[in-house]
Amino acid sequence: MISVHLKWLAVLLAGATVFYMATNIEPNTEPNTAPKILPTANQAIADWRNSIFWDQQGRQRVFNQLLTKPTVLSFTFTGCGVYCPAQTASLSLLQKQLNKEYGHGAYQIISVSLTPWFDKPETMDKFAERFSADYRNWHFLIGSEEATRRLIEEAGVSIIDHSKSGVADIDHTTDVYILNTDGTIASRILGIPLDERSITKNLHEKIIQQKNKQYNAL
Predict the structure, then answer these.
(1) With contact defined as beta carbons under 8 Å apart, do 104 and 137 qualify?
(2) How far apart are CA 118 and CA 111, in angstroms?
(3) How open is the CA angle 53-59-64, to the nearest 5 degrees?
(4) Residue 206 confidence (pLDDT)
(5) To bridge 146 with a disulfide, which of 33, 44, 86, 170 should be the other Cys (CB 3.0-4.6 Å)?
(6) Roughly what angle, to the nearest 10 degrees, separates helices 83-102 and 196-216?
(7) What DSSP string describes 75-107?
(8) Which pLDDT does position 213 carry in this prediction?
(9) Cα(91)–Cα(106) distance, rounded to whole angstroms?
(10) What 3-state DSSP class applies to 136?
């Protein structure tokens, strides 16, 4: 009976932590007046997976080149007031558990901005730091509008855009995804509330497959 009570206490504490982290972050409401450094739509190449994205530290990243390990994909934006912070807080707690179990080199998390015309590396960095994201295996990416649009379409993300006056304000679906190393979607998983069990199960399968592949290549 005591162990059951302790288990429920742990669940309640985890939920309280997520709630605190999600409700104690101010959404980014400052209009992005900085000059655009991202490629425009007419510069996008045929396969968006070979497009350049920028991470939270301002480094250029080719999406395909990141996909060398099992990947959890989420979508976010720094102007989000509720769902994105809640999901990011839950992912942060899950990352800590997964890193302890598998190590940070076994998998990665990629969170892509839904508002590339609004977000900047420095605002994504500030957003990520509020949730103590481990940058060793968590990338917060901003792509061109065209590359982002094609990724959103492939993932089946639904968006209603209420943005005006340069401030991001959108409603969007909140699923997270497990990606294969070729960028295709292996699993689509509930993101609010975050289905940690399904993510862990699917990620475990991918990690084992990756290890077997590496072993067979020896």
Answers:
(1) yes
(2) 15
(3) 40
(4) 95
(5) 44
(6) 40
(7) EE-TT--SHHHHHHHHHHHHHHHHHHHH-TTS-
(8) 87
(9) 16
(10) coil
Rounded CA separation 193/119 (Å): 25
Phi, psi of 201 (to 5 degrees): -60, -50
Identify the CA nearest to 56 among candidates 29, 83, 88, 90. Answer: 88
Task: Report how far residue 48's alpha carbon sits from residue 62's, in angstroms, rounded to the nearest whole number.
Answer: 9
Q: Which residue has the tokens 């590359």?
A: 147
| Nearest of 48, 38, 183 to residue 117 by alpha carbon | 38
**Distances in Å between the alpha carbon of 200 and those of 46, 47, 103, 207, 211?**
33, 30, 13, 10, 16
Give just the sign of the alpha carbon dihedral 94, 97, 98, 104: positive
Contact indicator for 134, 104 with CB cutoff of 8 Å: yes
Structure confidence at residue 40 (pLDDT): 36
Residue among 76, 108, 110, 123 at smallest CA distance from 207: 108
Q: What is the mean pLDDT of each run of 10 residues along the chain (218 residues)?
A: 42 45 53 39 53 95 93 95 95 98 97 94 97 98 93 91 80 94 91 97 95 86
Per residue, the 3-state secondary structure of 181-213, as one string, reads CCCCEEEEECECCECHHHHHHHHHHHHHHHHHH
Q: Which of 175, 105, 99 is nearest to 133 (CA)?
A: 99
Please state the pTM of the whole predicted model: 0.80
Residues 6+ apart with CB under 8 A from 110: 66, 71, 72, 73, 74, 138, 139, 141, 179
The Cα–Cα gap between 78 and 117 comes to 12
